[in-house]
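Hi Y.,

Following your request, here is the sequence exactly as I used it, all 382 residues.
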Amino acid sequence: MPDPAASTTLVADGVVRGAAVSGPGWVRVVDGRITATGDGPPPDLLGAPDEVVRVGGVLAPGFVDIHHHGALGHDYGSASPEDAEVAAAHHRGRGSTTLCASVATAPLDVLVERVALLSDLVAAGRFAGIHLEGPYLDAGHRGCHAPDLLRPPSVTELRRLVGASRGALRMVTLAPELPGAVDAIRYLVAEGVTVAVGHTSCTAAQARAAFDAGATVLTHAFNGMPGLHHREPGPLGAALVDDRVTIELILDGHHVAPEPARVLATVAPERLALVSDAMAATGLGDGAYEIGGSAVVVTDSVARATSNGSLAGSTITVADAVARAVAVLGLDVAAAVASASSIPARALGLPAPGIVAGAPADLVVLDGGRVTRVLRAGRFLA
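Below is the corresponding structure, written out as tokens. Let me know if you'd prefer a different format.
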């Protein structure tokens, strides 16, 4: 494997550049960053001692997972810093080179402690930010979130959480129909935090009010919300026609059937963000687990809460969703990559991954939509 501090030229059958794949092509990496890229064979680099690595397949920007809870038995709501890094490494090794750590509903003091702990990992570059999914959620669409901990949003509580995060809090999912929600949205947006609408029973009018107040993401579309009805389109209908809103999709073959997933990809292709919503069982197997302190059983790789049988996150990585987007939804590779990289990054105000000079060499190699190799900061990951 090439030394990340050395000059390396990667040669591929194709390179994702914006909305298209061109190639064959090459990408030069020096000290973990892209310094040049082009089509055809690599040029004579004036005798530079490059190691030429032929990766085959298609080179693409690394993926950005803005919604995942852990892996390998570790949940960010309870994991030690060391275990959180183990979970993150699992996702990075499968192509998600940029990660936001999601924390499910918990008591306020626990959330403050978790946010503070994870903010240290954000400062160290392990995560790009923190996502709080709860506790400001609708009890009727709670999924696996603990019902006794759900409550209306409080700006006073949010001030504690924002302060504990030291700037690392990137997104908060809440139900906009709850008392105080609009004030909470405005406060969070003013603090630079993205607000997502989710786990909600809101009407389309309430969703529009949330988007007008500054919410810009819909958390895992179709899941944790009313269905799309022709007279009451609900939050999904409001989001589909609002160009300000990025729409998350868990494309694991269980959360959303192919037909409604294709609706999202057809109506909002430039706003569709593939997320894993991966829970602790990711990378392991069937058995008993927890997410946010709630008991979950995984059977045939499908996670369900023991309390109500609700789906409780997934056991995939974003790479699995990209492969399904190509194979099942019929997206071309460049479109699937955008939904896994630049679109979710833009939603949270993160630097957009791209194969351009000056960008970090966070890259994946794809063969038929499936990840075969991963580089982070120019280093091949196992």
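Confidence is low (pLDDT under 50) at residues 1-5.

Thanks again,
Q.
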